[in-house]
C-alpha cells in the first residue's frame, strides 16, 4: 500500500501545477517530491504525470486518482479534527472505582464540586474492595489505600495520610465507660468487619497490644456503612477511617477512643493509567482532585 505522504505530495503537485512549488509548500526538496511521485507510480504501475522540461501535467489516470486521493485526505483531516475535539471536549464520562470504606471520606463532595464546574461530564462509579485492573476494565481512575503492588502501567498520586480509629458515641461511652487501653476492648461491644479488611500492619499493632478481637463474641458486619450506623445507634465501638468521620469528631458526635496511641497510618492514592495522551476531562479531574486534597490539608 502506498504511503500517506505520497498521496499528500501527489495531490499538492496537481493543485500547484509545479513540483518545485509543491516542494516549497511541503518543506521538502524538489528531488524528494520527484522520488515520492516515482515511488507512487511504481506502486500503482501507471503513469500519473506527463513530464516536460517546462512543466508537469497529470495524465487521465492521474486526474482520476487525484479525486480519490483528495477524498481520502479530507476524510483523514476530518477524523483528526474529530479526535482533537474529543480530546479537548469538557464532556463525556469519567469512570472510577473506590472502596466502600471511602464513601464518607469527602470524595463525593469533591465529585459534586467537579460536576458543578463541568456539568457536561458524567461519572460511572463502582464500589469494590479489590484492586481493579484499570486497563482491562476500561477504568479511568481508582482511589486506593495502603501499600500498592508494583504496577508498571499505572501512576499513583499520593493524596493524604489516613488511619483507622476506634470510635464511639458519647452516649455509649457514658453508659459503658471509656476504654483506657486496647485490652479494655475485650469488655466492650464492638462492630467488627471481617479480619481481611484490616491491613497486616493494623493486625500486627493489635497483636502487640495483646488484643485478639476475633477470639471474642462481638457484633459482626460485612459492610462499613452498616458498621457506621451501628456506632451511631449507640450499639458499640467501631473501627473507621479517620477521614470518614472527621466532621463527627469535630462536632463531638463521635469520640476517638485512643487518640494518643494511634493505629498505623496508610496513604490514600489516586490511581490512573500511564498514557502519553489523556482526554482533557481526565486531565481536569486529576488536577481538580489533587487541588482539593491539597487545600484540605
Protein architecture, described:
With about 300 residues, the chain is of the alpha/beta class. The chain folds into three domains: about 5-90, Orthogonal Bundle (Arc Repressor Mutant, subunit A); about 90-160 and about 270-295, Periplasmic binding protein-like II (D-Maltodextrin-Binding Protein, domain 2), CATH 3.40.190.10; about 165-265, D-Maltodextrin-Binding Protein, domain 2. It is built from ten helices and twelve strands. It has helices spanning about 5-15, 20-25, 30-45, 60-90, 105-115, 170-175, 200-210, 225-230, 245-250, 280-295, and strands at about 50, 55-60, 90-100, 120-125, 140-145, 155-160, 165-170, 190, 220, 235-240, 255, 265-275. The strands form three sheets. The chain has a five-stranded mixed sheet with strand order 4-3-5-12-6, covered by helices on one side. Helix 1 crosses helix 3, helix 1 (about 5-15) crosses helix 4 (about 60-90) and helix 2 packs across helix 3 (about 30-45). It is rod-shaped, with a radius of gyration of 32 Å. It starts with a helix and ends with a helix. The model has no long low-confidence stretch (mean pLDDT about 90).
Give me a quick take on this structure.
The chain has 297 residues and is an alpha/beta fold. 42% of the residues lie in helices and 20% in strands.
Amino acid at each position: 500500500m502506498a504511503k500517506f505522504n505520497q498521496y499528500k505530495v501527489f495531490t499538492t503537485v496537481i493543485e500547484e501545477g509545479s513540483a518545485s512549488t509543491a516542494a516549497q509548500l511541503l518543506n521538502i526538496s524538489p528531488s524528494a517530491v520527484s522520488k515520492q511521485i516515482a515511488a507512487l507510480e511504481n506502486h500503482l504501475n501507471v503513469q500519473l504525470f506527463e513530464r516536460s522540461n517546462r512543466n508537469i501535467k497529470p495524465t487521465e489516470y492521474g486526474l482520476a486518482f487525484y479525486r480519490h486521493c483528495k477524498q481520502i485526505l479530507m476524510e483523514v483531516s476530518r477524523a483528526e479534527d474529530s479526535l482533537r475535539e474529543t480530546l479537548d471536549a469538557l464532556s463525556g464520562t469519567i469512570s472510577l472505582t473506590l472502596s466502600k470504606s471511602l464513601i464518607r471520606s469527602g470524595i463525593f463532595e469533591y465529585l459534586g464540586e467537579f460536576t458543578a464546574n463541568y456539568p457536561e461530564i458524567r461519572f460511572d462509579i463502582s464500589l469494590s474492595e479489590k484492586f481493579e485492573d484499570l486497563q482491562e476494565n476500561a477504568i479511568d481512575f481508582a482511589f486506593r489505600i495502603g501499600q500498592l503492588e508494583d504496577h508498571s502501567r499505572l501512576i499513583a498520586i499520593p493524596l493524604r495520610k489516613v488511619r483507622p480509629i476506634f470510635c464511639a458515641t458519647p452516649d455509649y461511652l457514658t453508659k459503658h465507660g471509656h476504654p483506657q487501653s486496647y485490652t479494655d476492648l475485650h469488655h466492650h461491644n464492638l462492630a467488627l468487619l471481617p479480619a481481611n479488611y484490616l491491613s497486616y500492619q493494623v493486625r500486627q499493632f493489635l497483636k502487640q497490644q495483646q488484643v485478639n478481637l476475633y477470639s471474642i463474641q462481638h457484633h459482626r458486619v460485612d459492610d462499613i456503612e452498616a458498621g457506621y450506623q451501628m456506632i451511631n445507634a449507640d450499639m458499640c465501638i467501631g473501627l473507621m477511617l479517620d477521614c470518614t468521620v472527621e466532621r463527627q469528631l469535630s462536632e463531638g458526635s463521635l469520640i476517638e477512643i485512643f487518640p494518643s496511641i494511634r493505629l498505623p497510618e496508610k496513604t490514600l492514592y489516586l490511581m490512573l493509567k500511564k498514557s502519553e495522551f489523556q482526554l482533557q476531562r481526565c486531565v481536569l479531574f486529576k488536577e481538580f482532585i489533587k487541588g482539593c486534597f491539597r487545600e484540605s490539608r
